């Protein structure tokens, strides 16, 4: 049974189609990378998954639920920037992941103490415990994104959406963020959608890589048609899952 | 070396800061001296020593009729009106600014209205305020509110709209309601900007206060200035003007300090 179902989704802004005829189903726990040229509707697709926008046609369901009208607890998100709250300390940012759903947006008394203790555990796990009392503006880009991911996971979403989360980071930091994300995923088994413009990153992290492109192209009117998913790669084992040796007898194994 | 890259040292910077003040004082002293040597009873540019003596008399000697020191009474009356007017404006502007900035329905309904309201010259409404609210405290406070509230609302609602959409969406995915987003995301980020906006609107607030006091009052700094104008008591007027300037400067300084103390995150950088 597929977990996320995207059924014949169209989205246009005014007369301009952005994406058209998008159909895809995703199983629970899959990591989906979304790649494509600029302006090919990758981020639009992510906003549709997030329910920040409603598609002009078609629908997106998570776990068979009716299509969402607005972003909610079942979808977590990390953007390239502005994903943490600058006026809260690092620790408060993590607590916010749990307490924003309350009527006053905060915990009181014993519950608050427990939440702070849990936040410290989370911070230790994501390696930010030494900056718990600082404000996000004092952190490096990589640390801010780690905080943003930690905050999103504190809310325990069913699907995690990442919009070019490592786009603004330097290559070294990016590699350590890949390890960080891989570890977190192994722990939580969460379904992840990640938009990236880095093909290598997409194939490295994803189980599947969806490529957005325009299948129809009108040279006199480049905006006449929208983009859709043109390729759906199986990216496990470095993109060549069918070459995995299934037998363990009578075959040579690579050393 | 280019001029834009030349920087003054500490001592020179201090000297340059003091220079315009000193120059103005010297220019005044010379002008006063020239006039007084031509006519010792000239009232237009009293000697600095006269102003100091007047200031001392104003600050310490009680009024013969009421037994009160009018200077402090005026100061208290004016500050009360000013703080009340600015405080009410800040409070109302915060609430309406949040509503306009966060709720599309309120924005559609109010943004245009406030934009038009802010174009009304408040002083033109002063006669109406005197007629409607009488000549007491209320009309003066209302004038300050009418004078600075539209500016504050427009500024603050704009600031709320400047909060990145990503941050609001993030709060939504953490399960925050509109109320929680207003309370925990928008409001805390708005407060330092409120202080900035209040600092900017203190000038107009003083203007409206003194205008209202000049026309109808029985105490207050503006009232006193316009009262003694009849006697050409420049020494009193100048003392009051210096005092008002000092008050406004201290308020500005205090707000800046408050902003730094209360919102350390606005200054935090890597």
Concise structural overview:
Chain A is built from 7 helices and 9 strands; from the N terminus they run E-E-E-H-E-E-H-H-H-E-H-E-H-E-E-H. With 255 residues, chain A is an alpha/beta fold.
Characterization of this structure:
The complex is a heterodimer of chains A (255) and B (270). In chain A, helix 2 (90-99) crosses helix 3 and helix 2 runs parallel beside helix 4 (141-154). The mean pLDDT of chain A is 86. Chain A has 255 residues and is α/β, with parallel strands linked by helices. Chain A has a domain at 4-73 and 161-168 and 190-243: Rossmann fold (3-Layer(aba) Sandwich), CATH 3.40.50. Chain A has seven helices and nine strands. With 270 residues, chain B is mainly α. Chain B folds into two domains: 7-38; 71-263, MetI-like (MetI-like fold, Orthogonal Bundle), CATH 1.10.3720.10. Chain B has ten helices and no strands. In chain B, helix 3 (70-102) runs parallel beside helix 6 (137-162) and helix 9 packs antiparallel against helix 10. The longest helix of chain B is centred in the last third of the chain and has 38 residues, at 178-215.
Strand order of the largest sheet of chain A: 5-6-7-3-8-9
Give the helix/strand class of chain B: mainly alpha
In CATH, what is the class of the largest domain in chain B?
A: Mainly Alpha
Average pLDDT value of chain B? 91
CATH architecture of one domain in chain A: 3-Layer(aba) Sandwich
Helix content of chain B: over 70%
CA-atom Rg of chain A in angstroms:
20 Å
For the terminal residues of chain B, how far apart are their CA atoms? 31 Å
Report the portion of residues of chain B in β strands: under 5%
Sequence of secondary-structure elements of chain B: HHHHHHHHHH
Characterize the overall form of chain A.
globular
The tally of helices of chain B reads 10
Oligomeric state, counting identical vs distinct chains:
heterodimer
Radius of gyration of chain B: 24 Å
At the fourth level of CATH, the homologous superfamily of the largest domain in chain B is MetI-like
Secondary structure tally: strands of chain B: 0
- The percent range for helix content of chain A is 25-40%
How would a textbook summarize the main sheet of chain B? none
Q: Any guess at the CATH architecture of the largest domain in chain B? A: Orthogonal Bundle
Interface with most residues: A-B, 38 and 25 residues
């Amino acid at each position: 049974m597929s977990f996320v179902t995207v059924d014949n989704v169209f989205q246009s802004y005014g007369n301009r189609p952005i994406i058209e005829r998008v159909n895809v189903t995703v199983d629970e726990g899959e990591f989906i990378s979304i790649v494509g040229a600029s302006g090919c509707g990758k981020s639009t697709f992510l906003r549709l998954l997030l329910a920040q926008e409603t598609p002009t046609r078609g629908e997106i369901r998570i776990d068979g639920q009716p299509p969402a009208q607005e972003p909610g607890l079942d979808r977590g998100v990390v953007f390239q920037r502005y994903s943490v709250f600058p006026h809260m300390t690092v620790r408060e940012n993590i607590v916010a992941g749990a307490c924003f759903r309350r009527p006053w947006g905060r915990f009181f008394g014993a519950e608050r103490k427990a939440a702070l203790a849990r936040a410290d555990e989370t911070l230790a796990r994501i390696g930010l415990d030494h900056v718990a009392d600082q404000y996000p503006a004092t952190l490096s880009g990589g640390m801010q994104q780690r905080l943003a991911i930690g905050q999103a996971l504190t809310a325990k979403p069913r699907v995690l959406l990442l919009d070019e989360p490592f786009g603004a980071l330097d290559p070294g930091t990016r590699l350590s963020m890949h390890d960080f994300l891989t570890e977190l995923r192994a722990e939580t088994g969460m379904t992840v959608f990640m938009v990236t413009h880095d093909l290598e990153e997409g194939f490295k992290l994803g189980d599947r890589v969806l490529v957005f492109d325009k299948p129809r192209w009108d040279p006199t009117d480049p905006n006449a048609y929208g983009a859709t998913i043109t390729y759906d790669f199986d990216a496990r084992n470095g993109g060549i899952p069918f070459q995995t040796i299934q037998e363990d007898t009578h075959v040579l194994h690579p050393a | 070396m280019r001029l834009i890259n030349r920087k003054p040292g500490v001592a020179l910077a201090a000297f340059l800061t003091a220079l315009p003040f000193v120059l103005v004082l010297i220019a005044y002293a010379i002008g006063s001296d020239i006039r007084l040597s031509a006519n010792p009873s000239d009232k237009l540019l009293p000697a600095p020593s006269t102003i100091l003596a007047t200031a001392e008399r104003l600050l310490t000697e009680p009024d013969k009729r009421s037994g009160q020191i009018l200077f402090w009474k005026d100061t208290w009356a004016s500050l009360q009106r000013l703080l009340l007017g600015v405080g009410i404006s800040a409070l109302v502007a915060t609430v309406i600014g949040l509503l306009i900035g966060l709720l599309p329905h309120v924005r559609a309904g109010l943004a245009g209205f406030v934009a038009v309201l802010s174009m009304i010259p408040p002083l033109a409404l002063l006669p109406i305020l005197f007629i409607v609210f009488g000549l007491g405290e209320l009309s003066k406070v209302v004038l300050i509110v009418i004078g600075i509230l539209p500016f504050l609302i427009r500024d603050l609602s704009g600031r709320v709209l400047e909060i990145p959409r990503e941050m609001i969406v993030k709060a939504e995915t953490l399960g925050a309601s509109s109320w929680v987003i207003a309370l925990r995301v928008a409001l805390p980020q708005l407060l330092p900007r409120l202080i900035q906006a209040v600092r900017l609107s203190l000038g107009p607030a003083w203007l409206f206060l003194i205008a209202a006091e000049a026309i109808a009052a029985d105490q207050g700094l503006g009232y006193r200035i316009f009262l003694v104008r009849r006697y050409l008591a420049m020494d009193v007027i100048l003392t009051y003007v210096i005092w008002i300037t000092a008050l406004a400067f201290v308020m500005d300084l205090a707000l800046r300090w408050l902003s730094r103390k209360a919102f350390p995150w606005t200054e935090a950088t890597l």
